[in-house]
Write a structure and sequence with these properties.
33 strands; 7-stranded antiparallel β-sheet; 10 helices; globular
């Protein structure tokens, strides 16, 4: 994403709202002024529009027209919510067809971002792949309508010209989604079956709306969807990411006010009912669900959390190496998604149920895979063997056995990096959840931020990254603000520590405390002679990676890691053995 121009401080107001029975004062900001692409005076590269098309918002013009041969667009259709608020939607459907299902794209991106652009180009996706009728990260109407589906591109409450104020990933947005689904299911052209599809934010809204259990929502396809906006976006590991989220919140186009996640994060940096309201109740999602996850994308944790927590007996996960955009618009992925929607929105018995419940791309090096779409029955894998690699600060190494001698290593908390390596003496697959248990201190301060990457080294000891969109990805990651180290005992498991974020526990300078750093899921293969490296720092290590992610760190002076003796610092790894071994012959680890 390109750097955006500096914007003036937005106008903000406060409201009294109720979340989970608790009244709170919440902050809203004035939305980005809608920009009509036909306005010759607009600045296409300036504050009006960004690379996702957010900011493009033509003047209201309710009409029905043929947007492509045989395809109708019902533009700016007004739909009333249960409280009387009107939202606007563009509905694309095949001309003269009735009894067809509808797929909804629901997000704050803007329902016609392609307008005003010479070509609708998405990073990693070949030119001409996606039509300009396509909402960002959403189903393309010119594909789905020609396959006898309707597509509804919705501007939710407050977005664009829709009335009301924008609720970002909250329960108000979910209730509105329920209302719209029930409205569209009653349209004379609809067969009464509704689905939802899309990536990123368009996936995140699906979790929340499906948890409302609208009767006519038959299935969802949340591809790459964050599940907990606090733990996975605003405060990953307790480290605030206000700078990155300012780009997102500041881009929402609205004539009214926008739920200000950034201001709320600054005012309320601990978990509270406001943040809890943005976590879906996964136990209420029981409809068929087809999920995807990218091993190298910040939606990774949420995608797997959602898949694991939903209660549907018909759920599928496909985890892949490539970025969400080229995967989401590949002809293989779209054809498979059509099988899913055909099964549950058209009741076509096409053998979709024979699809393996879990399929994994096991990464190797650069663009190479060890296994592609390997079938599994669950995640984490039931045959996982959890093993510990003990840190030794004296030698910067990892060992299968506990380290007897106590030692420590220090690094500058703002700029420094320290590493721990182990060379594998046999082929090793690591698939699942890792955790890093460490004893740490800030030598002259009361807090520290810890950034962790898990990397692969080649047989010569050089970094061997995975390539994503042609760039070297930094590695499987985790983060921790030491003052947020307290765990939620109910949410945590032996393989996945989950922080509670209910209180801030500062440390005394030099006080050594244990931390359990949650790492996102991984699936990668190490060949005999290759090494695993733990990279630990007080800042995000990009190393060529393009994604403009920033965290607002709080480090001063040195941070130290203690190992050995009573300081049992270790990395727990999920080692996956072959499904069957006959002497020296291994079966079922590759595809």
């Amino acid at each position: 994403m390109p750097d955006m121009p500096m914007m003036p401080e937005p106008v903000r107001v406060t409201k009294k709202e109720v979340f989970g029975g608790v009244e709170m004062e919440t902050i809203y900001r004035q939305g980005k002024t809608p920009v009509d692409p036909k306005d010759e005076n607009r600045d296409a590269g300036g504050p009006g529009m960004n690379s996702m098309g957010m900011g493009v918002c033509p003047a209201l013009n309710p009409r029905t027209y043929e947007c492509a041969p045989g395809i109708l667009c019902e533009q700016d259709v007004a739909v009333k919510m249960r409280d009387g608020v009107t939202i606007y939607v563009d509905i694309f459907r095949p001309k003269d067809k009735v009894g067809i299902p509808c797929i909804i794209s629901w997000s704050f991106y803007g329902k016609r971002p392609g307008e005003g652009m010479s070509e609708w180009q998405i990073m990693g996706v070949a030119p001409g792949t996606v039509s300009k009728l396509t909402k960002f990260e959403s189903p393309d109407p010119l594909y789905w309508c020609y396959n006898d589906y309707a597509i509804a591109n919705v501007d939710p409450r407050g977005v664009g010209h829709s009335e009301g104020d924008v609720s970002i990933f909250g329960s108000q947005d979910a209730r509105d989604g329920y209302d719209f689904i029930e409205w569209v299911a009653q349209q004379p052209w609809c067969n009464g079956k509704v689905g939802m599809g899309g990536n990123s934010a368009v996936a995140m809204t699906q979790w929340r709306i499906a948890a409302q259990q609208p009767p006519h929502l038959c299935c969802i396809a949340p591809w790459e969807g964050t599940s907990d906006i606090y733990r996975e976006s605003m405060f990953e590991g307790g480290v605030p990411a206000v700078s990155f989220n300012e780009f997102i919140v500041g881009s929402v186009t609205s004539e009214n006010m926008v739920d200000d996640l950034v201001a709320m994060a600054q005012r309320s940096p601990l978990m509270n009912p406001y943040w809890e309201d943005k976590i879906p109740d996964f136990s209420r999602i029981t409809i068929p669900c087809y999920c995807t996850a990218c091993w190298n994308h910040f939606h990774l944790r949420g995608a797997f959390q959602g898949f694991r927590k939903i209660k549907s007996k018909k759920k599928w996960m496909r985890a892949h190496r490539e970025f969400e955009w080229p995967d989401g618009y590949s002809h293989e992925s779209i054809a498979e998604l059509k099988l899913f929607f055909d099964r549950y929105l058209k009741d076509i018995h096409n053998c979709w149920e024979s699809t393996p419940r879990v399929r994994l791309e096991v990464m190797d090096a650069k663009e190479f895979l060890y296994a592609k779409n390997r079938p599994e029955t669950s995640f984490p894998l039931k045959r996982t063997e959890y093993k510990k690699l003990y840190l030794d600060a004296a030698s910067h190494s990892l060992s299968w056995e506990p380290v007897a001698q106590q030692s420590k290593v220090s690094y500058d908390g703002e700029t420094g990096v320290t590493t721990f390596d182990i060379k594998f003496t046999e082929d090793t697959e690591i698939t699942g959840y890792m955790k890093l248990h460490m004893w740490v201190t800030a030598e002259s301060y009361t807090d520290a931020d810890i950034f962790v990457n898990i990397q692969k080294l080649d047989t010569k000891g050089e970094w061997l990254p995975v390539s994503v969109l042609g760039e070297p990805h930094p590695g499987t990651w985790g983060k921790m603000r030491v003052s947020h180290r307290a765990l939620d005992e109910e949410k945590s498991t032996h393989f996945q520590p989950v922080q509670s974020h209910l209180a801030e526990e500062k440390i005394q300078p030099g006080e050594v405390v244990p931390v359990d750093v949650e790492l996102v899921p991984i699936s990668r293969f190490w060949h005999k002679g290759q090494s695993l490296r733990i990279q630990i720092a007080g800042h995000y290590i990009r190393e060529g990676w393009f994604e403009p992610l920033f965290w607002d760190t709080d480090n001063h002076g040195d941070t130290s890691v203690y190992t050995g003796g009573r300081y049992d610092s270790y990395l727990q790894i999920p080692v996956v053995p072959p499904k069957f071994v006959d002497g020296d012959i291994e079966y079922g680890r590759k595809d």
